[in-house]
């Protein structure tokens, strides 16, 4: 999906009206996704002001259809699959996708994939600061979607326990394959 048709803005007080009806929950009750709605409406602006994350919103006709929040991170996990020349680094630079949600009216329209690609592209091309990895702490309900992207894998295997509670066997099998393959989530 081309993102050009949407306006993109850093969240500020000016956009309060645009975000007030944002809803990423969809048909089923989901308290995790409710948290994503709540964060956008009640906390994201403060996080922007206090430098705990940056939230950007996508608007169509003045209404928010998607948002994501980014912060810096450093991955210290020695199991990460990294080139020999860089193995001695104490940590590896990562961009942290702290929150990501699409309004339910746009689910499965391709906008999530397009935005994720844009985030990765911008991180890769950034001339000021390098990120070797894109890190995120996915809700178990969203894991299957992220696994649609071959760049992603699972860093923390304790996730498996959480995932087992809500994912189908096919997804758990795919997770195990990626865990065995190694930690190749570089961008
Ligand atoms: C998860 C989310 C960000 C995905 O965005 P989206 O715009 O609905 O997804 P897209 O339409 O871009 O998906 C594109 C691809 O993923 C596939 N897909 C969509 N939903 C999927 C799902 N639940 N599981 C697996 N694959 C899925 C599509 O079939 C499509 O595949 P293709 O490119 O091979 O045709 C969005 O649905 C959302 O906001 N969900 C609620 C909040 C959430 O889960 N946020 C992430 C928190 S970690």
How is the main sheet built?
5 strands, mixed
Tally of separate helices: 7
| Secondary-structure element series | EHHHEEEHEHHH
End-to-end separation in angstroms reads: 21 Å
Q: Which distinct ligands sit in these coordinates?
A: coenzyme A
Output the structural class.
alpha+beta
- Helix content range: 25-40%
> What is the overall pLDDT average?
86
Give the number of DSSP strands: 5
Shape: globular
Strand content: 15-25%
Model regions low in confidence, pLDDT < 50 over at least 5 residues: 182-187
SSE layout:
Layout: E1 7-10, H1 16-19, H2 31-42, H3 44-49, E2 54-60, E3 63-75, E4 92-102, H4 111-125, E5 133-135, H5 143-147, H6 159-164, H7 169-181
Parallel strand pairs: 4-5
Antiparallel strand pairs: 1-2, 2-3, 3-4
The structure holds coenzyme A.
Give an overview in words.
With 187 residues, this protein is of the alpha+beta class. The chain is 33% helix and 20% strand. It is built from 7 helices and 5 strands. A 5-stranded mixed sheet has the order 1-2-3-4-5, sandwiched between helices. A hairpin with a 2-residue loop joins strand 2 and strand 3. It is globular and about 50 Å long. Coenzyme A is lined by residues 24, 33, 36, 100-102, 106-113, 138-139, 142, 144-145, 148.
